[in-house]
Amino acid sequence: MEILQSLFLGFSVAATPLNLLYCFLGTVAGTIIGALPGIGPSAGCAILLPLTFGMGPTSAMILMAGIYCGAMYGGTITSVLINVPGESSSVMTTLDGYQMALQGRAGAALGIAAFGSFIAGTLSVVFLMLLAFPMVKLALTFGPPEYFGLMLMGFATISTLSGESVLKSIMMTFFGLLVSTPGLDSFSGHPRLTFDFPELLGGIDFLVVAVGVFGIGEVLFTAERTLTLEFVTTKIKGIWPTKEDWRLSWKPIARGTIIGFLISALPGAGATIASFMSYAAEKKLSKHPEKFGKGAIEGVAGPESANNSSTGGAMIHLLTLGLPGGGTTAVMLGALMMFGMQPGPLLFQKNPEFVWGLIASMYIGNIMLLIMNVSCIPLFIKILKIPYAMMMPLIIIFSTVGVYSVEGSIFDVGVLFCFGILGYLMKKFDRPPAPLVLSVVLGPLVERSLRQSLTMSLGSPDIFYTRPICLGLLIGTAIMLFAPGFAWLWRRRATAAA
Amino acid sequence: MKRAEQILGILLLLFSIFIGYQCTLIESGTEFGMGPAFLPFWLSVGLGITSLIFLVRAVVLPAAKFAPVFCPDRAGGLRVFLVSLAYLISIALMKPLGIPLALGIIAATTMPVLGARNWKVVALTALLTPLVIWAVFGRLLNVSLHMGVLEDVLPLY
Description:
A: mainly alpha; 74% helix; globular; B: mainly alpha
């Protein structure tokens, strides 16, 4: 009953004309961003964040949630029509979606992806609502040591589950945490690592890092490759799934929804892993696994549902614990803090209209996205035909003005350039960007919880292993970090023995 | 790429040593535990250790384990260099010329580098950029843009 009352409150906030407009704009922008190869939802949210400065926090987050959900839908378009995933969570869709397009079934692939995404996205918001209150109750028992343990576990999860080398992720986490340290020390007021630049006294804003790494870095990387988008077809027919399509797809959609939600509910794991796992599960469970990779509709329905379902899962720990699970939610957390909100369990008590307005807007956004993706695909294809030679300079311009508008500082634009180069080099050296941005956002929170914990215990580290939840989280972190190493050693021994 | 990995490892190691040294100049402990330099110092140690591991790996492993070259497409590498250079120059020009005009220069210089061949489109985009920036960010979103030489032509208030 409490949930329904809260949801009604949320709809009263989200259904105002202005918020509906922001939700619509967010979903349209998100779909385009998701469809553009190279520009993912993290970059989209970071680049467009400065546009929200004149808005209230609720409207701003509704816009960003629209971008996030829209990007998950948008990635399908280019995956199916040009065999290039718009963003990483759509990689699996290329395997069968593109084959379907070659067989003249692009409409069916896009249609089942849209309906599957809608069902999964909506159900994940239902799960989010159902789990939010128990999570808030649990989170309210947490003190600084538990938060410290939880953040460490988030770093460990993103390092081990992001699909990249664990050591590379750990290195980027150290680097990101270091980037978050310059400025006035919040406890003593002592300046540190400012190198006599007065502009660094306020620290390095997370937005500069996020826009630099995700936005400018991607532009430079794209400049190296000269991408041209060549569509298999631009005439989309038969977008409404047939009875046979539904018969084949309903189980993959259901499984994808559950897999996507559960995977992304782990801090650090996200849509990409969910879509990979869903594809693997469908192939394993299928009576005709040989059809996968040759245009099986289940290979589109499952992963697409999983990546959309992950939006609800990712929101759980962002809203209830104040912990982002990946690049996009890290940008959203940073945005929340910029608007003066304190993410975490108290958000539900202090700002229920904000939290429930955001949740309600995700329902509305999913409906908007379904309508758009069923009826406006040709329009999106036209937008995607805007040449990269025009699109990329626009991204640079937008990023630059956006970063400048935060503090009105040209110094910040210079720092943006440096992080843009860093983002490009990270791509070249195959270093993952999400741990860097996540740790820049979480850095001050990690330090605060660590120092508060040590102040509570008068400087003794006992506090971390005498509190059961904190101890459990630290053990979980250790297992996550060391398990891949032990597994490697075990495999090596087994190979040597054989 | 093996050589590039070695250079990266050395640079990161030197960076972490430099940061670690800077931290030793600040107070690292207080009565109740951590001082301002405590966390950055240990983070620099962590970064140094991981960089060292990658450096050793880049020295010990054979070149075949790495991608063959840093930049397989020379023309692509040149485009990245030119876009970066244009961006850097326009940042340097932001103070004297103002942000809208500097961003117009970015459009004018990067579009041809990225493949735009129609000079009319390039010129039109470059001309429209300062106007759109002024109208959208300056007037609509009330961002206090540094207008530079356009201050009297396109007033913000």
